[in-house]
Amino acid sequence: MSAAAIALSSLGWKVFPTLRRKPVVKDWPGLATTDHEQLCAWWERWPDADPAVHAGASGLVVLDIDGAEGWASMPELERINGAWLEPTLKVQTGRGEHWYYRRPDRPCGNGTAIHGLAGLDVRADRGFVFAPGARHRSKAGDTTGHTYQFIVRPRCPLGVLRHLANSLPIAPACICLDADSRPGRKDDAKGAFADVFNGGQQ
After folding, report:
1. 3-class SS at 2?
2. What are phi and psi for residue 93, nearest 5 degrees?
3. What band does 33 get if pLDDT is binned at 50, 70 and 90?
4. Are strands 22-23 and 60-66 parallel, antiparallel or unpaired?
């Protein structure tokens, strides 16, 4: 798992460890990092941890299309957007796909069933996603046996993934949610996503 965490950090994404769907680093928003020495230290302490990415700090907005409900909701989301969503880096999941976009230059919130559309969730500022390299887990934290991968050609070189990660399109307006600024509100991305890294390092 440490190799996956380091590979993810090489994409410029800030990574931290999780166990059974929960961060093991208390201040993960402040400590998620691209520092390989820190990542190796964490995974030496928690060798069974799954890597997660701090979406906002990594400059990401991630759309989760979850199951048949999510796919059925996509036409309405694109109607709201006024156009098809621009193609981007994608991850195959146990039930659908995760679409990675570049965060625009403004605050972006997290949301489930965005615009009231079942099966469509978003993670951005103050949110995290279980990253490529993590095992897919149930809500109870148990592994499901599924392996999720970037939707790229087999053994995609890390250099190609870096290029894709550095050239993501800006997130479409329909998934750039307003950040929740209510006093005491913690928009901490419950129900974050599970992906699996499958890129050859080259």
Report:
1. helix
2. -115, 180
3. very high
4. unpaired
DSSP class of 24: S
Q: Which residues contact 122 (CB under 8 A, 6 or more apart)?
A: 61, 62, 63, 64, 108, 109, 110, 111, 114, 175, 177
User: Over the stretch 67-120, which tens digit does the pLDDT of each residue have?
Assistant: 999 999 999 999 999 999 999 999 887 788 999 999 999 999 999 999 999 999
Nearest alpha carbon to residue 176 among 104, 89, 99: 104
Amino acid of residue 29: P
- What is the phi/psi pair of residue 88, to 5°? -155, -175
Note whether 166 and 102 are within 8 A (CB). Answer: no
Please give the Cα distance from 188 to 139 (Å, whole number). Answer: 16
Q: By 3-state DSSP, what share of the chain in percent is helix, strand and coil, each rounded to 5?
A: 25, 25, 50
Q: How far apart are the first and last CA of the chain?
A: 17
Q: Please report which confidence band the pLDDT of residue 146 belongs to, taking 50, 70 and 90 as the band edges.
A: low
**Pair type for strands 50-54 and 22-23:** unpaired
